[in-house]
């Protein structure tokens, strides 16, 4: 099933945390005591995990990744006093990253241009596989990213939000302040355009 495969693709292999639980508590305490060396150690230890997560979620918008990773760490350092230690620091950071990525989808898809008016409907190529099947196949990721990069940004983001982040059309419509039918129409157009470009790759 497409959503099962996509869920597997979304889950990255768990990287070992650089610190054990007591080491994490000591690190957090040192950062809260304004120890700059500890803050630098925190960023260095978790940058790769956060960068990898954000890069995969924003493909093919690589130009947004560095700024978003920086936002994740700024938010984490600003809210470190709320960290309760019930999960590993890496998991806590990925949770912040998930919200930041979600914000990117929401902000860019809420732009004034109507979701329905991105571009006219096109006839999908009949020999191309469905967009959701392509998005959840790791072997086709590079080709998929090339196709996504050719789509209007709204089409690429709405496909990623729906299939990569597994947002329901109901949730997407609610966040965007539009109707579920409008989201479904845009998804249909995005899938059709995706198939068309895929067949030309």
Structural commentary:
Helix 3 crosses helix 4 (about 65-80), helix 4 (about 65-80) crosses helix 5 and helix 8 crosses helix 10 (about 180-200). The chain has 2 domains: about 10-105, RNA polymerase sigma factor, region 2, helix turn helix motif (Rna Polymerase Sigma Factor, Chain: A), CATH 1.10.1740; about 115-200, Arc Repressor Mutant, subunit A. The two termini are about 25 Å apart. It contains 10 helices and no strands. It has about 200 residues and is an all-alpha fold. The radius of gyration is 19 Å and the shape is elongated.
List keywords for this structure.
201 residues; mainly alpha; Rna Polymerase Sigma Factor, Chain: A; Arc Repressor Mutant, subunit A; 0% strand
Measured between the Cα atoms of the first and last residue, the distance is: 25 Å
Which structural class should the secondary elements be placed in?
Answer: mainly alpha
Flag low-confidence runs: 1-14, 114-126
| Total number of beta strands | 0
Oligomer: single chain
């Amino acid at each position: 099933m497409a959503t099962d495969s996509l869920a597997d693709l979304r889950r990255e292999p768990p990287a070992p945390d650089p610190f054990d639980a007591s080491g994490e508590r000591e690190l957090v305490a040192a950062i809260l005591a304004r120890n700059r060396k500890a803050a630098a150690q925190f960023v260095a230890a978790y940058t790769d995990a956060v960068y990898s997560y954000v890069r995969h979620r924003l493909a093919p918008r690589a130009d947004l990744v560095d700024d978003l990773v920086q936002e994740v760490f700024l938010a984490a350092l600003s809210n470190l006093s709320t960290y309760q230690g019930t999960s590993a620091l890496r998991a806590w950071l990925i949770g912040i990253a998930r919200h930041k990525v979600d914000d990117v989808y929401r902000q860019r898809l809420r732009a004034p241009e109507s979701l329905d008016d991105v571009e006219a409907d096109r006839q999908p190529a009949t020999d191309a596989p469905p967009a959701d099947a392509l998005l959840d196949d790791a072997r086709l990721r590079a080709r998929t990213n090339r196709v996504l990069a050719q789509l209007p940004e709204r089409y690429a983001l709405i496909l990623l939000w729906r299939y990569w982040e597994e947002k329901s059309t109901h949730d997407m419509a609610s966040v965007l302040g539009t109707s579920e039918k409008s989201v479904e129409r845009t998804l249909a157009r995005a899938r059709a355009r995706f198939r068309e470009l895929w067949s030309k790759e």
